[in-house]
Amino acid sequence: MRAAIFLDRDGTLIREVGYLSSLTQIEILPDVPKALKLLKSLGYLLIVVTNQSGVARGFFDEPFVLQVHSVLQERFIEQGARIDAFYYCPHHPTEGKPPYDIDCDCRKPKTGMLKKAASEHDIDISRSWVIGDSLVDAQLAQNAGCKGILLKVDCDLLLPPSCIVKPDLWEAASYIASQGALR
Fold first, then answer.
1. Is the pTM above the cut of 0.85?
2. Cα–Cα distance measured from residue 61 to residue 52, given in angstroms and rounded to the nearest whole number
3. CA 178 to each of CA 3, 67, 174: distance values in angstroms, whole numbers, following the listed order
4. What whole-number distance in Å separates Cα of residue 68 and Cα of residue 55?
5. Using CB atoms within 10 A of its CB, is residue 119 exposed (0-12), middle (13-18) or buried (19+)?
6. How many CA atoms lie within 13 A of 73 on its CB side?
7. Does 160 have pLDDT greater than 90?
8. What tens digit of pLDDT does each residue of 67-98 get?
9. Tally of CB atoms within 10 A around 94
10. 137 exposed, middle or buried (CB, 10 Å; 0-12, 13-18, 19+)?
11. For residues 164 and 70, which has the higher predicted lDDT (pLDDT)?
């Protein structure tokens, strides 16, 4: 089984703009391609896991989410990096319209997206990491039983003990590299 880095999208790979609604709003954060290349060189699969409740709320549709992921992949490839898979949750438990207004198992911090990725890509979640910019990502790591890194966070938050704080994805990737080779 392989290990993976489960990456949040908005605020981790690209600048957080609220509900991204135009491809012109996509801005890859500094050093992200370099960080992805480092993580890949360590042997990790790179898997994006993102809540996209804007679908449930009618701000954009699923084809737009797929288009954003396609544009991101193209831009990463142009810079020598590549994401192995993208997973997203279009649901919201209390807002939106059918069929998206449900309490699903894929919305972070629930572990449905990680379990699906693990099944489809032969991933050992216990050897994997979650990297994101919100407490939901730290909770996802804890719920899944893997290590977590939270980016640019107000340190007054009560974080799970297994969660490490780093300022950006490059620092997170460097920290993971300092932990030694995958076993």
1. yes
2. 10
3. 16, 35, 6
4. 13
5. exposed
6. 13
7. no
8. 999 999 999 999 999 999 999 999 999 999 99
9. 9
10. buried
11. 70
Q: For residue 163, what pLDDT band results from cuts at 50, 70 and 90?
A: confident
The tokens for 166 are 């780093």
Residue 168 to residue 164: CA distance in whole angstroms? 12
Q: How far apart are CA 26 and CA 43, in angstroms?
A: 27
Average pLDDT over residues 56-65: 97
Annotated active-site positions, please? 8, 10
